[in-house]
Amino acid sequence: MNFTANDIAEFLNGEVDGDGSVSVNNVSRIEEGREGTLSFLSNPKYIHYIYETKSSIVLVNKDFVADKEIAATLIRVEDAYQALAQLLEMYEQSKPQRVGIEQPSFVSKTAQVGEQVYIGAFAYVGSNVKIGKNVKLYPHVYVGDNVVIGDNTVLNSGVKVYENCIIGKECIFHSGVVIGGDGFGFAPSSANDYKKVPQIGNVVIEDHVEIGANTCVDRATMGSTIIRKGVKLDNLIQVAHNVEIDEHTVIAAQTGIAGSSKVGKNCMIGGQVGLSGHLSIANEVKIAAQSGIGRNIKQEGVVLQGSPAFEFGPYQKSYVLFKNLPKMREQIIALEKELKELKK
């Protein structure tokens, strides 16, 4: 389906700069732009591509100022990245929606299934499960007994949800996600043995949460592991038992959060970050990639880096010294020799 620049600008409340009648039927990256496609520019590092792109339409921020002529038609919006997200969401919603229960699959007679639900082949839905409206369970999804799934939630192929877990509305879980596996609880029973501690809690995931592929959220030993509304988890993240992640926090891939730690609201945690157990992280904290957190972070909005992590500014200054340590060592050795000669 083709859309003109005028159509797109009207949908996005944007302003056309150029030929409003030019049309597109696909999207492309600005550096790989093709005629008939739409691109966007939000990162200043990519500005030079806008003067050479073959894209027919480019979304730009309203404050963008061109240094030279641009062949593409521009649509000026408040935030080009968010505007692109709106367009892609509209495109996703325009796709045909799957509905119905495919065979072979198993749905318990005691399960409650809402309207317009899709359950793919080889899926399993256990006893006393409650599934809301417009839920999508793709092939090979496992939903254990007594699970609750809210309206418009999507579980992609291979997602496993253990018994008694609760999932909110409009969540998206990608392939391989495991919700409610046992927490890592073992008690030493002798010099060479560990006794498993039964994990009898559950996982509660609130509305509008997205979880990336192969991420695991463990059930609580007692009580609940809790992921609050609006949280976004990347691929390959480990969330241990009794952890709580507060609203609208985002966490990048390969991060691990040990048991009973609490992460505040609106935090941003980079990839490969490690958090020790029983910690408390304040709201709006930012933690750079590959950092290690072994203490409570009480100051809201602080930016941390390093392992063990400390404030970003001092870390950057210290890193300059880290890099120069071999050279400084040589200088110290030379000064020691010189001092010995002077003493003689």
UniProtKB/TrEMBL annotation:
- Supply the source organism for this entry: Ancylomarina salipaludis
Name the chain's protein.
Answer: UDP-3-O-acylglucosamine N-acyltransferase
What is its biological role? Catalyzes the N-acylation of UDP-3-O-acylglucosamine using 3-hydroxyacyl-ACP as the acyl donor. Is involved in the biosynthesis of lipid A, a phosphorylated glycolipid that anchors the lipopolysaccharide to the outer membrane of the cell.
Which parts form a coiled-coil structure per UniProt?
A: none
Q: From the UniProt record, give the pathway where this protein acts.
A: Bacterial outer membrane biogenesis; LPS lipid A biosynthesis
The enzyme's first-digit EC class, named in words, is: transferase
Q: In the Enzyme Commission scheme, what number(s) does this protein have? A: 2.3.1.191
Record-level GO BP terms: lipid A biosynthetic process
Q: Which residues form the UDP-3-O-[3-hydroxymyristoyl] glucosamine N-acyltransferase non-repeat region domain?
A: 22-89
Keyword line: Acyltransferase, Lipid A biosynthesis, Lipid biosynthesis, Lipid metabolism, Repeat, Transferase
Subunit comment: Homotrimer.
List the catalytic activities from the record: a UDP-3-O-[(3R)-3-hydroxyacyl]-alpha-D-glucosamine + a (3R)-hydroxyacyl-[ACP] = a UDP-2-N,3-O-bis[(3R)-3-hydroxyacyl]-alpha-D-glucosamine + holo-[ACP] + H(+)
Task: Look up keyword Transferase and say if it applies.
Answer: yes
